[in-house]
Amino acid sequence: MKRFLKKLILFIAPFSLLLFPLGVLMYSKEVFLNVKSVTRSEEKYVFGLAYSEIGRQFKFLNVQERERFDILALGSSRVMQFRKEMFLQRFYNAGGAVQNMEEYESFLRALPTGKLPRLIILGLDQWMFNVDYRNNYKNPADGQSWTDVTAVDKNVHEKVKTFVVDVFQGKVKNILALPGYKVYGVNAVSETNGFRNDGSYFYNGAVQKLVAHDTSYRDFAFKETMSRISKGCCRFNYGDALDAAALDTLNSLLAFCKAQQIEVIAFLPPFAPTVFQKMKDLGKYGYLKMIYPQISPVFEKYGYEVYDFSDAMALGSLEGEGMVDGFHGGEVVYSSILVSMIEQGSRIRAYTDLQQIKADLKGAENSFIVYKY
């Protein structure tokens, strides 16, 4: 009998090793998740999947499935710190939905006409005007439509294996420590990192490390960003010429917005001051100084606004204060962007309360966070 039990345990053990991590992934809602039910929700949540590339589909479905939004922030992760509390009308942050110039118009054209916003706050990453970036760009979600979220249910065995490795390497912590609001995915459970219900990104794990001056943070003192610059990779590709094709694509996007009677207010997102200075000093980013002078006439042609906030120093960010990393600002930085736009006479004033934004800034929790959730 003992011999039999020993054999049974040896037989069951491998399955137990598989079933436990699978159970944790299911518990954290990393796999087998009804994504549409989340996008239709108005409750407070953090959506942070670690092993499925469906961020842009998640953003699209939120815009498609929910009541029409008056204001839409559209761009890469570098627009994700605009919050609904900053605006007077219904707002959604679709940051992360697009990564190159072509995807802006693709996103908008895929939406039902009745879901197009009145105003788009358009974040234009500087590298979108770099020929080398365009030639090397490949979206990991290529081949997926704007509504395809089937990646959540695919390759579950690979996700289990990756999760186990991440746990042993210390990348996943507090997997059962759920906060007081709904969470979806390993990143949301472990670090409280992910999308809020207004589409903005909760950088909780990163901010807590920065506030504590934790040098283990991946981009502490912008070390990772500086490494990208030294290598000329990972969005920081070198380039001396402006991408003419990007200008043509921008023109097409603005023409579409004009035809649909969508107001557009655009900006070039901030780099940490030391990062921006490093790029200028290196002498390999000649295209940077060409962007604003070249795109301004395109916006003027359609009666739209565009602002250059490439250097966070102009927003009062000294030595990168308020920057989550070398090229992502926190809520304080993005509230300051709105204040600067309004004080320069932007039409965005009609969608905001300047005095309220300033009051919120004054009561900010720290140099990164303005609003508690």
Short précis:
It is built from 14 helices and 11 strands. With 373 residues, the chain is of the alpha/beta class. It has one domain.
Describe this structure in words.
By secondary structure, the chain is of the alpha/beta class. It has one domain (37-139, 146-362). Helices cover 42% and strands 11% of the residues. It has 14 helices and eleven strands. Mean pLDDT is 91; it is low at 4-13.
Primary descriptors:
alpha/beta; 14 helices; 373 residues; 11 strands
Strand order of the largest sheet: 3-2-4-8-9
Mean pLDDT: 91
Please write the string of helix (H) and strand (E) elements: HHEHEEHEHHEHEEHHHEHHEEEHH
**What is the C-alpha radius of gyration, as a whole number of Å?**
22 Å
Oligomer: single chain
Relative strand content: 5-15%
Low-confidence stretches: 4-13
Q: Which overall shape is indicated by the principal axes computed on the Cα atoms?
A: globular
- What is the total number of structural domains? 1
